[in-house]
Amino acid sequence: MDYNVNSEGFYGEFGGAYIPEILYANVENLKNSYLRIISEDGFKAEFDSLMRDYVGRPSPLYFAGRLSGKYGTRIYLKREDLNHTGAHKINNTVGQILLAQRMGKNRIIAETGAGQHGLATAAVCALKGLKCIVYMGETDVARQQLNVQKMKMLGAEVRPVSSGNKTLKDAANEAIRDWCCNPSDTHYIIGSTVGPHPYPDMVTRFQSVISREIKSQLLEKEGRDYPDYLIACVGGGSNAAGTFYHYLNDMRVKLIGVEAAGLGTDTDKTAATIHLGRRGIIHGSRTFVMQNADGQITEPYSISAGLDYPGIGPIHANLFVTRRAEYLAATDTEALNAAMELTRLEGIIPALESSHALAVFGKKKFKPADVLVLTVSGRGDKDMDELKIL
Ligand SMILES: *Cc1c(COP(=O)(O)O)cnc(C)c1O
After folding, report:
1. Residue nearest to atom 2 of ligand 1 (CA)
2. CA 353 to ligand 1 centroid distance, Å
């Protein structure tokens, strides 16, 4: 079994490219050129040099001694929170801006939830002098003011979206609408392993720098290049996909994704798509979707704006049905408690998204000899309003 995408753009029964006719040429062009462009020597050299000197990679693999002591196991944290702009999102936006440039696009659009992807997109657009428009739900504009201000300072235009729940799904709808109107000069930088093929695979490849580094860092620290467990939070699934990528077909490594239960998977205030979703199509991809009995997409809820999405990357839908990976769900409260615990035990304030992954220690028991690598996808600065209630 191969857990990567096949030549038709599917992960098992999931993925594909279900798009309106008007986008066909764009998506087809991207599909036919991305693998060639990203394997060119010039592309790789510029990507690697920006990863090192702009993003600040490799991100450290930190042995969390006090956290390990508390849970009686060996916990390493992959520190994506230390990246430029504060999260893993920048790995993907650097890759996609280099691709857009080589495809002759001079206008960039993006959607954002928590603002981390919008921020990372605005930064690389400033870096390359390209026009940048970020679609963001009005609810998120209100709750993520710091990132909105940063995006504007970087020269991006932030367009508030007032449809639906006024969150991530609605921002993505608006970005797709824009792309339909401007297919020739515009590249749409999608922020997660979602959307039509080739986006899920392309984003996974750019994020796979995470697991490439884990391999060499673990070899140095543990004398073996694989852990027993990899753990990451899952919104659309990009930090998790990047964390899993180089271990997908290595069965010695157990994979755990943690999604957002919101107020609980037994309530309707939740974003636990793998637990509660059914097969459907969202933003061009066949996957699990939160929907009502009529197939209408329902509004997700999570305290964390970055996990508040009613779909899930098709790679994860497939890892779930094939049982290659295990998926847990953490509530708002469990995530907040895990954030506080990491802060007090290690002096690291994690993003609320990453805190869902950290909640795994309250849900699952590990052995003393187990080596765990947990990806801290981002830092908590943007979440201080939610975190200060503690
Ligand atoms: C966007 C974001 C996420 C969720 O996105 P994935 O594609 O699932 O990784 C998780 N953590 C942080 C810090 C984010 O900004």
Report:
1. 306
2. 6
User: Is 59 assigned a catalytic role?
Assistant: no
Q: Is 121 in the pocket of ligand 1 (CB under 6 A)?
A: no
| pLDDT on residue 357 | 98
Rg of the chain over Cα atoms, rounded to whole angstroms, equals 19
Q: Is 242 in the pocket of ligand 1 (CB under 6 A)?
A: no
| Domain spanning 58-87+208-387, CATH class | alpha beta
Give the pLDDT confidence of 128-170 residue by residue, as tens digits.
Answer: 999 999 999 999 999 889 999 999 999 999 999 999 889 899 9
Q: Which residue has tokens 């609810």?
A: 139
Q: Do residues 193 and 237 touch, judged by C-beta distance below 8 A?
A: yes
Q: Which of 198-202, 325-329, 360-364, 382-386 bottoms out in mean pLDDT, i.e. has the lowest?
A: 382-386
This prediction's pTM: 0.97
Catalytic (active site) residue 220? no
CATH 3.40.50.1100, the chain: domain bounds: 10-50+89-203, 58-87+208-387
Q: How many Å apart are CA 118 and CA 249, to the nearest integer?
A: 32
52 alpha carbon – ligand 1 mean position (Å): 21
Which tokens go with 106?
């001079």
**Taking a C-beta distance cutoff of 8 angstroms, is the pair 339, 386 a contact?**
no
Counting atoms of ligand 1 from 1, which one is nearest the CA of 351?
Answer: 13
Find out whether 359 and 337 touch, Cβ atoms under 8 Å: yes
Residue 208 a catalytic site member: no
> Per-residue pLDDT for 44 more than 70?
yes
Of all protein residues, the one whose alpha carbon is nearest to atom 5 of ligand 1 is 235
Which atom of ligand 1 is closest in space to residue 242's alpha carbon?
A: 9
Q: Are strands 278-282 and 186-188 parallel, antiparallel or unpaired?
A: unpaired
The active-site residue, picked from 68, 80, 89, 382, is: 89
From 233, 274, 308, 352, give the residue whose CB has the most ligand 1 atoms within 8 Å, as the site to mutate: 233
- What is the C-alpha separation between 40 and 382, in angstroms, rounded? 36
Residue type at 347 in one-letter notation: G
Contact 171, 161 (CB under 8 A): yes
CATH architecture, domain defined by 10-50+89-203: 3-Layer(aba) Sandwich (3.40)
